[in-house]
UniProtKB/TrEMBL annotation:
It comes from Pseudomonas turukhanskensis. GO terms for biological process: cell wall macromolecule catabolic process; chitin catabolic process. Residues 83-137 form the Glycoside hydrolase family 19 catalytic domain. This is Lysozyme. It comes from the Bacteria. GO terms for molecular function: chitinase activity. PANTHER family: FAMILY PROTEIN, PUTATIVE-RELATED (PTHR34408), GLYCOSYL HYDROLASE FAMILY 19 DOMAIN-CONTAINING PROTEIN HI_1415 (PTHR34408:SF1).
Amino acid sequence: MQLTLQQLLLILPGARKAPNAIIDALNAAMVRYRIDSPVRAAAFLAQVGHESGQLRYLREIWGPTPAQARYEGRQDLGNTQPGDGKRFMGRGLIQVTGRANYQKAGAALGLPLEDQPELLEQPVHAAMSAAWFWQTHGLNELADAGQFQTITRRINGGLNGQAERVALWETAKRVLA
Protein backbone atom coordinates (compact mmCIF):
# COMPACT_ATOMS: atom_id res chain seq x y z
CA MET A 1 0.00 0.00 0.00
CA GLN A 2 1.17 3.53 -0.75
CA LEU A 3 0.53 6.15 1.88
CA THR A 4 -0.52 9.51 0.46
CA LEU A 5 0.46 12.87 1.89
CA GLN A 6 -3.22 13.58 2.53
CA GLN A 7 -3.61 10.38 4.55
CA LEU A 8 -0.44 11.10 6.49
CA LEU A 9 -1.60 14.58 7.45
CA LEU A 10 -5.03 13.31 8.52
CA ILE A 11 -3.32 10.79 10.82
CA LEU A 12 -0.50 13.06 11.97
CA PRO A 13 -1.52 16.70 11.53
CA GLY A 14 1.69 17.81 13.24
CA ALA A 15 3.64 16.28 10.35
CA ARG A 16 3.07 19.49 8.37
CA LYS A 17 6.33 20.64 9.96
CA ALA A 18 8.16 17.42 9.03
CA PRO A 19 10.81 17.29 6.30
CA ASN A 20 9.26 17.09 2.81
CA ALA A 21 11.14 13.87 2.06
CA ILE A 22 9.45 11.98 4.88
CA ILE A 23 6.46 10.64 2.88
CA ASP A 24 8.70 9.04 0.25
CA ALA A 25 10.99 7.70 2.97
CA LEU A 26 8.05 6.20 4.87
CA ASN A 27 6.63 4.54 1.76
CA ALA A 28 9.99 3.03 0.80
CA ALA A 29 10.59 1.74 4.33
CA MET A 30 7.09 0.31 4.65
CA VAL A 31 7.47 -1.57 1.35
CA ARG A 32 10.92 -2.93 2.24
CA TYR A 33 9.84 -4.18 5.67
CA ARG A 34 6.38 -5.47 4.68
CA ILE A 35 4.34 -2.93 6.59
CA ASP A 36 1.99 -3.53 3.73
CA SER A 37 -1.57 -3.65 5.02
CA PRO A 38 -3.84 -1.01 6.56
CA VAL A 39 -3.65 -2.81 9.93
CA ARG A 40 0.15 -2.85 9.96
CA ALA A 41 0.46 0.68 8.60
CA ALA A 42 -1.99 2.09 11.17
CA ALA A 43 -0.08 0.60 14.09
CA PHE A 44 3.29 1.63 12.63
CA LEU A 45 2.25 5.22 11.93
CA ALA A 46 0.71 5.60 15.39
CA GLN A 47 3.88 4.40 17.07
CA VAL A 48 6.35 6.39 14.95
CA GLY A 49 4.01 9.37 15.18
CA HIS A 50 4.25 9.35 18.96
CA GLU A 51 7.97 8.54 19.13
CA SER A 52 8.90 11.35 16.73
CA GLY A 53 6.51 14.09 17.80
CA GLN A 54 4.42 13.52 14.67
CA LEU A 55 7.52 13.18 12.47
CA ARG A 56 9.01 16.49 13.60
CA TYR A 57 11.91 15.09 15.62
CA LEU A 58 14.37 12.73 14.00
CA ARG A 59 16.54 12.80 17.10
CA GLU A 60 15.80 12.86 20.78
CA ILE A 61 15.53 16.27 22.40
CA TRP A 62 18.54 16.28 24.69
CA GLY A 63 18.54 17.84 28.16
CA PRO A 64 20.01 15.70 29.46
CA THR A 65 17.03 14.63 31.51
CA PRO A 66 17.62 12.29 34.45
CA ALA A 67 16.55 9.37 32.23
CA GLN A 68 18.96 10.44 29.47
CA ALA A 69 21.81 10.82 31.96
CA ARG A 70 21.31 7.15 32.80
CA TYR A 71 22.13 6.16 29.19
CA GLU A 72 25.78 6.68 30.08
CA GLY A 73 27.52 3.43 30.98
CA ARG A 74 24.47 1.22 30.34
CA GLN A 75 25.83 -2.18 29.40
CA ASP A 76 22.45 -3.30 28.03
CA LEU A 77 22.68 -0.49 25.45
CA GLY A 78 26.34 -1.22 24.69
CA ASN A 79 27.29 2.22 26.00
CA THR A 80 30.75 1.26 27.24
CA GLN A 81 32.82 4.33 26.35
CA PRO A 82 32.60 7.75 28.01
CA GLY A 83 30.15 9.94 26.08
CA ASP A 84 28.25 7.02 24.51
CA GLY A 85 25.02 8.06 26.22
CA LYS A 86 24.76 11.31 24.33
CA ARG A 87 26.54 10.11 21.18
CA PHE A 88 24.04 7.27 20.75
CA MET A 89 20.93 9.15 21.88
CA GLY A 90 17.59 8.22 20.34
CA ARG A 91 17.49 8.88 16.60
CA GLY A 92 15.18 7.88 13.79
CA LEU A 93 11.42 7.59 13.87
CA ILE A 94 11.49 4.91 16.57
CA GLN A 95 14.45 6.46 18.39
CA VAL A 96 17.20 3.84 18.07
CA THR A 97 19.18 4.29 21.31
CA GLY A 98 22.55 2.96 22.47
CA ARG A 99 25.78 1.87 20.76
CA ALA A 100 24.68 -1.77 20.50
CA ASN A 101 21.43 -0.85 18.77
CA TYR A 102 23.24 1.51 16.38
CA GLN A 103 25.61 -1.36 15.52
CA LYS A 104 22.68 -3.70 14.78
CA ALA A 105 20.77 -1.11 12.76
CA GLY A 106 23.91 -0.11 10.86
CA ALA A 107 24.66 -3.72 9.93
CA ALA A 108 21.08 -4.29 8.76
CA LEU A 109 20.88 -1.04 6.77
CA GLY A 110 24.44 -1.04 5.43
CA LEU A 111 25.26 2.24 7.19
CA PRO A 112 28.30 3.23 9.30
CA LEU A 113 26.10 4.28 12.22
CA GLU A 114 28.69 3.66 14.89
CA ASP A 115 30.98 6.19 13.21
CA GLN A 116 28.19 8.49 11.97
CA PRO A 117 25.18 8.15 14.29
CA GLU A 118 23.70 11.38 12.89
CA LEU A 119 22.85 9.52 9.66
CA LEU A 120 19.66 8.42 11.43
CA GLU A 121 18.55 12.07 11.39
CA GLN A 122 18.12 11.93 7.59
CA PRO A 123 14.51 11.15 6.65
CA VAL A 124 15.29 8.07 4.56
CA HIS A 125 17.44 6.49 7.29
CA ALA A 126 15.09 7.61 10.06
CA ALA A 127 12.22 5.79 8.35
CA MET A 128 14.27 2.73 7.36
CA SER A 129 15.64 2.28 10.88
CA ALA A 130 12.11 2.45 12.30
CA ALA A 131 10.75 -0.09 9.82
CA TRP A 132 13.78 -2.35 10.37
CA PHE A 133 13.18 -2.22 14.15
CA TRP A 134 9.49 -2.89 13.56
CA GLN A 135 10.10 -6.01 11.50
CA THR A 136 12.97 -7.42 13.56
CA HIS A 137 10.91 -7.17 16.75
CA GLY A 138 7.94 -9.03 15.26
CA LEU A 139 5.68 -6.00 15.27
CA ASN A 140 3.97 -6.79 11.95
CA GLU A 141 2.64 -9.99 13.50
CA LEU A 142 1.55 -8.16 16.66
CA ALA A 143 -0.22 -5.54 14.53
CA ASP A 144 -2.00 -8.30 12.60
CA ALA A 145 -3.18 -9.71 15.96
CA GLY A 146 -4.28 -6.29 17.26
CA GLN A 147 -1.75 -6.42 20.12
CA PHE A 148 -1.11 -2.69 20.24
CA GLN A 149 -0.17 -2.53 23.92
CA THR A 150 2.48 -5.22 23.40
CA ILE A 151 3.84 -3.23 20.44
CA THR A 152 4.20 -0.18 22.69
CA ARG A 153 6.05 -2.21 25.31
CA ARG A 154 8.48 -3.57 22.72
CA ILE A 155 9.23 -0.09 21.42
CA ASN A 156 9.17 1.87 24.65
CA GLY A 157 9.87 -0.68 27.36
CA GLY A 158 6.68 0.50 29.07
CA LEU A 159 3.50 2.32 28.20
CA ASN A 160 4.73 5.92 28.12
CA GLY A 161 2.43 8.04 25.98
CA GLN A 162 -0.02 5.18 25.49
CA ALA A 163 -3.10 7.42 25.40
CA GLU A 164 -1.68 9.43 22.50
CA ARG A 165 -0.46 6.28 20.75
CA VAL A 166 -3.93 4.74 20.95
CA ALA A 167 -5.61 7.95 19.73
CA LEU A 168 -3.24 8.06 16.73
CA TRP A 169 -3.88 4.36 16.07
CA GLU A 170 -7.65 4.83 16.10
CA THR A 171 -7.32 7.76 13.68
CA ALA A 172 -4.97 5.81 11.42
CA LYS A 173 -7.31 2.82 11.29
CA ARG A 174 -10.18 5.09 10.18
CA VAL A 175 -8.09 6.94 7.58
CA LEU A 176 -6.55 3.78 6.10
CA ALA A 177 -9.73 1.66 6.10
